[in-house]
Amino acid sequence: VCPPVYLNHLPLPSAQNVRYLGLQLDRRLTWATHIHTKRIALNNRSCQLRFLLTTKHINLKNKLFLYKLLLKPIWDFGNYGIQLWGAAKPFNITMIQSFHSK
């Protein structure tokens, strides 16, 4: 249990999750919430792009370009977050890596 934090002699409410600089931090820094929301965003974006990525009329170079342009920025988490979420539990990391290897 975290001790209460005061600002101007008023206690600040505690939260289970906090969003800071695009990263969702939880109390124990498990990254589960952050990785879960990123996985949902990846699934939604890939469903939108499924037609383009599965068609035979677009060559592999252009498919890779679409992937790097539209999907990779979601799971990349920015340059500042990649070192931080590397300390997440292996199960949480495999959620993102399993999508990446598809």
TrEMBL record:
It comes from the Eukaryota. Keywords: Nucleotidyltransferase, RNA-directed DNA polymerase, Transferase. GO terms for molecular function: RNA-directed DNA polymerase activity. This is Putative RNA-directed DNA polymerase.
